[in-house]
Amino acid sequence: MGSVAVEQRNQAATCYVGNLASKVSEELLWELFTQCGPVEHVFMPKDKVTGAHYGYGFVEFRVTSDADYAARVMNFVKLFGSPLRVNKSLQDRKVMDVGANVFIGNLDPMVDEKLLFDTFSSFGKIIRSPTIRRDSETGTSRGIGFVHFDSFEASDMAIQCMNGQFLCNQQVSVEYALKERSKTERHGSAAERTLAAQMKEKQERERASTMPRR
């Protein structure tokens, strides 16, 4: 199933599937995703020594529309108790992470990734599936989650509106997440905002340059 090289796959018709439980196999993914359309290939990267997969895989469909459909209907579907994270494979390359990353604390154990998405997507575009830190053995929530927006306007609004509000009858704290490998520095700095604005201007110039002239 995973013998086809990456460069030979139809990336536009391929879905990334993450947060896979250890017992999920390529055969099971194939069977699950054929409900969305004919599947061409399934590939799950594995450790060469142990043979265990890394918790994610790729599903290639015959046509792009089936991959689009799978990304919509299969995201957050639970498999062996773990909510799947399903995105179009090309999506993460097209959308840059500008640092508009939000931390949500004091989450009720009943809050799952889908509820986070449904709640926070009202403030702006979320560029990757929300995550909740869970106990590696039991899968129970540790009470903290993360949401990544495509703009600081969206993350600012989410923090302003949701900090101190109740989610599943529990008051949550919402603020900018700590930067990776830092215990004190948080996202949302002036430098990040300036860089994000420059990136946006560059993308707009590139988009304008590719538009047909009359």
Automatic annotation (TrEMBL):
Annotated ranges, domain RRM: 13-91, 100-179
UniProt keyword annotation of Repeat present: yes
Ranges for region Disordered: 180-214
CDD domains membership: RRM1_SF3B4 (cd12334), RRM2_SF3B4 (cd12335)
Keywords linked to the UniProt accession: Nucleus, Repeat, RNA-binding
Pfam family, one: RRM_1
Subcellular location: Nucleus
UniProt feature coiled coil, ranges: none
Stated family: Belongs to the SF3B4 family.
Listed name of the protein: Splicing factor 3B subunit 4
The organism of origin for this protein: Durusdinium trenchii
